[in-house]
Design a protein that fits this description.
The chain is of the alpha/beta class. The protein has helices at 16-24, 29-36, 40-48, 66-80, 84-91, 100-109, 117-120, 177-190, 218-225; strands at 138-149, 152-161, 167-172, 195-200, 229-232, 241-242.
C-alpha cells in the first residue's frame, strides 16, 4: 500500500496487523474472536473485507462542502431576501462555521450581494391558493435545486419560513418520495415552533403530479398526520431548478 494510511477509528478494537491475521487465518470465527478478545461479528466483518482500513462513517447525504454550501447560500439569498446579518443568523443553523466575510464573498461571487430594486419590496414567495383554508402556525415553502459536487449531480432541499428568518436545508444525491418524507420528518424534529402549512412544487417527490391532492402519497400523508396543510403551488417549478448566478431566475 502506498501513501499514508488513514488513522484507525478512535474506538477500534483491533489493529491493522490483527485484521490482516484474521483475513489470512483459516480458524473459525469463534476461535479467532476468543484469541483477539473481540466479538464474533467483528471477526466476520474483517474476513469479508479486502482492506484493513475502517469504512467511512460519513453521512449518505451530500456533504456540506464548497459547492453545496455555496448553492445553499445563493438559494437562501434569492428566496428569503434577508439582510446580510439576518441571512447570516438564519444560515448558521445549517452552516455553524459560516462567517460574515465568507458569506459576503460568496454572495459577490454569485452576483447576488445586492438585491435589485424590483425585488426589494416584493414578497419572496406568493400567497397560498385561495381555495386552501388558512392554517395556524408557520407557513413554510420547500424549494428543490440541482447543482454539482465535483462531477456528481446533487440536489438541494431548502425549506424557508415565508415571513421569518428560519430556514433548513439538506443535500442528497437523488430525489424520491422517501427522501422527501425523510426531509419532512427532519423538519418536524428541528423546528421549534408550530407549522401550519408547507408549500411545494408539483414534483413527484411531494405529490402525484396527475393528482396533487391524492391522500396516499407519502408527503401529504405525513403532513396531514401532523396537522399540517400540504399545498402544491403550480407557480413553483415541478423540476429541480439549477443554481445560477444573478437574479434573472427570480420573478
Amino acid at each position: 500500500m502506498t501513501g499514508k494510511q488513514r488513522p484507525l477509528h478512535p474506538r477500534a478494537r483491533t489493529t491493522r496487523a490483527q485484521r490482516k491475521r484474521i483475513q489470512k487465518s483459516e480458524g473459525s470465527d469463534r476461535a479467532l474472536a476468543a484469541k483477539f478478545h473481540v466479538n464474533v461479528k467483528t471477526v466476520a466483518k474483517w474476513r469479508k473485507r479486502c482492506s484493513t482500513n475502517d469504512a467511512s462513517m460519513g453521512p449518505r447525504h451530500a456533504p456540506w462542502f464548497n459547492e453545496a454550501e455555496e448553492a445553499l447560500i445563493v438559494v437562501a439569498r434569492k428566496f428569503t431576501r434577508l439582510s446580510l446579518e439576518r441571512e447570516l443568523a438564519a444560515l448558521r443553523r445549517v452552516l455553524p462555521g459560516l462567517s460574515r466575510s465568507r458569506l459576503y464573498r460568496c454572495l459577490r461571487k454569485w452576483g447576488v450581494s445586492r438585491i435589485p430594486r424590483r425585488l426589494r419590496m416584493a414578497k419572496p414567495s406568493g400567497p397560498a391558493p385561495a381555495e386552501t383554508p388558512p392554517a395556524k402556525g408557520a407557513r413554510l415553502r420547500i424549494f428543490l435545486h440541482r447543482f454539482h459536487l465535483g462531477d456528481e449531480p446533487a440536489f438541494l432541499w431548502t425549506c424557508a419560513d415565508e415571513v421569518g428568518d428560519w430556514l433548513h436545508a439538506s443535500g442528497t444525491y437523488e430525489i424520491d418520495a422517501l427522501l422527501a418524507k425523510d426531509f419532512l420528518v427532519e423538519l418536524f424534529a428541528v423546528a421549534d415552533f408550530p407549522i401550519g402549512s408547507i408549500t411545494t412544487g408539483g414534483n413527484f417527490a411531494f405529490c402525484d403530479p396527475k393528482a396533487p391532492e391524492a391522500t396516499w402519497h407519502l408527503f401529504p400523508k405525513v403532513c396531514r398526520k401532523r396537522g399540517v396543510v400540504p399545498i402544491v403551488d403550480p407557480a413553483l417549478p415541478s423540476e429541480p431548478a439549477p443554481v445560477v448566478a444573478g437574479w434573472a431566475d427570480v420573478g
